[in-house]
Design goal:
alpha+beta, 6-stranded mixed beta sheet
Length: 206
């Protein structure tokens, strides 16, 4: 892989701000060059304000939670005439481009390589990216006029955070045991979701 990418640090990073660690600053990369790099790479990469970052792999529980959420919402999304995606599709929001864990898009694709108008975006948290998901990605996704909900799911404990776009920005609500998260494409029952993960995962919910 070219040397103009690196993995994210575990610390939080705002849109357009690169790490201050003792490494060479990353060069600016156009979105077109990022697409070419990412398509040729053996790992997926994110594009943040002209900088490219290699993505890390997820845990067992992360992957199981991701798959269960997609399965719970995919049929409802298709019934609404929308297109559900899991992990492998880019979403560009202004100066950033990510691979959401789950997203739903309700308009036709404007480009074969990426989407620009998701209505629902779901990220399953990881220890190294949870602050990025809460701040950097939330800031980027909030620029999407099409966005109805941005959802953060903790795979290790029963907690789901939902942000809805309002005139004043994102409004967050938290959901724990016994709660139901309502989305336009189906409901996520917190207890049932985490029980389904626990039924097959090596490590149980904290």
């Amino acid at each position: 892989m070219p040397t103009w990418t690196r993995r994210r640090d575990a610390d939080a990073r705002s849109v357009g701000v690169v790490s201050t660690a003792s490494v060479e600053p990353l060069p600016f990369v156009t979105f077109a060059d990022y697409l070419a790099l990412d398509n040729a790479a053996d790992v997926r990469n994110e594009w943040v304000a002209g900088r490219v970052y290699a993505m890390s792999g997820g845990s067992e529980r992360h992957g199981l939670m991701n798959g269960l959420i997609f399965s719970a919402l995919a049929d409802g999304a298709r019934a609404a005439g929308c297109r559900p995606f899991q992990e492998g599709r880019r979403l560009r929001a202004g100066l950033v481009s990510y691979y959401p864990d789950v997203m739903v898009v309700c308009g036709p694709a404007g480009d074969d390589q990426f989407e620009t108008d998701a209505s629902l975006v779901i990220e399953v948290l990881s220890p190294s990216t949870r602050d990025v998901d809460r701040r950097e990605k939330a800031t980027g996704y909030a620029t999407l006029a099409s966005l109805r909900q941005y959802v953060l799911v903790d795979p290790d404990r029963a907690r789901i955070e939902v942000a809805e776009l309002t005139g004043d920005g994102l409004r967050w609500t938290a959901h724990g045991p016994g709660s139901v998260v309502f989305t336009p494409y189906g409901d996520l029952h917190v207890d049932a979701l985490y029980a389904a993960v626990d039924a097959v995962a090596t490590r149980q919910t904290e």
